[in-house]
Amino acid sequence: MTDPNRITLYYSPQSRATGTRVLLEELGAPYDLHVLNMKAGEQRQGAYLAINPLGKVPAIRHGDALVTEQVAITIYLGDLFPQAGLTPALDDPLRGPYLRWIAYYGASFEPALIDKFMQREPAPITQSPYADYDTMLGALEAQLSKGPYLLGERMTAADVLWGVAFSWTMMFGIVPKKDVFVRYAERMTSRPAFQRINAADDEMAAQHAAAAVG
Q1: What CATH number does the domain containing 181 carry?
Q2: For the GST N-terminal domain, which residue ranges apply (predicted)?
Q3: Are the C-beta atoms of 67 and 147 separated by less than 8 Å?
Q4: Under 8 Å CB-to-CB from 138, ≥6 apart: which residues?
Q5: Based on the structure, what is the number of domains in the chain?
């Protein structure tokens, strides 16, 4: 009998989908991978564009529900497996801040990072979705300094999203290696779930690279 809670994760190694897979592991969620070789351009082929017209991962399917966008996926999965304790309930005072900082990732952090990476001038502060880069990052630094997690003493699904994000962006030099960011990223990436997926990603990425060359 098929498990109605089983998730299909549309996936490529060493991409934004890595954080979603780590979250699934942290939640103890049953899932299957639908792997796309992005080096071979599989994410731009018709079969996957029918899943996500933007040709991006992650995406998940759960029963009849198809969910794209990393922020939406994080919220959806956390709520789907409340027994894991990584999601504040609707009547929990932390629910609002939890949603705030997950949304902040997609609405402010990502646009700021892309402008920074592309060395583009941001929009005027009154039109910019993130004010300016230093202000955007300063708000995160202030929040994380209350630590050890984004919402203080309690780890949530938001920390999986942000921990992986800080690890990658500091590695590529887009986010400065400030002590508070480094400690936070290390706290999250030292967890067994991240370690398992990181090792699996390395192996899968090497296979994809070899297949693309071949």
Answers
A1: 1.20.1050
A2: 4-85
A3: no
A4: none
A5: 2
- The position carrying tokens 């936070």 is 184
Question: 110 and 193 in contact (C-beta within 8 Å)?
Answer: no
Question: What letter does residue 106 receive in the DSSP assignment?
Answer: I
Nearest alpha-carbon partner for 20 in 42, 52, 64: 52
Q: Which of 69, 76, 65 is nearest to 157 (CA)?
A: 76
- DSSP assignment letter at 43: G
In a domain, 21, yes or no: yes
3-state secondary structure of 62: strand
Backbone angles phi, psi at 80, to 5 degrees: -70, -30
Q: How far apart are CA 75 and CA 105, in angstroms?
A: 12
In 3D space, the residue among 89, 87, 88, 90 whose CA is nearest the CA of residue 78 turns out to be 87
Q: Residues 165, 110: contact at Cβ < 8 Å?
A: no
Q: Locate tokens 């005027």: which residue?
A: 124
Here the tokens at position 209 are 């690279």
Residues in contact with 203: Cβ distance below 8 Å, sequence separation at least 6, in sequence order: none
For residue range 3-56, list pLDDT tens digits in order: 777 999 999 999 999 999 999 999 999 999 999 998 889 999 999 999 999 999
pLDDT (tens digit, 9 = 90+) per residue, 139-190?
999 999 998 999 999 999 999 999 999 999 999 999 999 999 999 999 999 9
Determine, yes or no, domain membership for 210: no
User: In one letter, which amino acid is 168?
Assistant: W
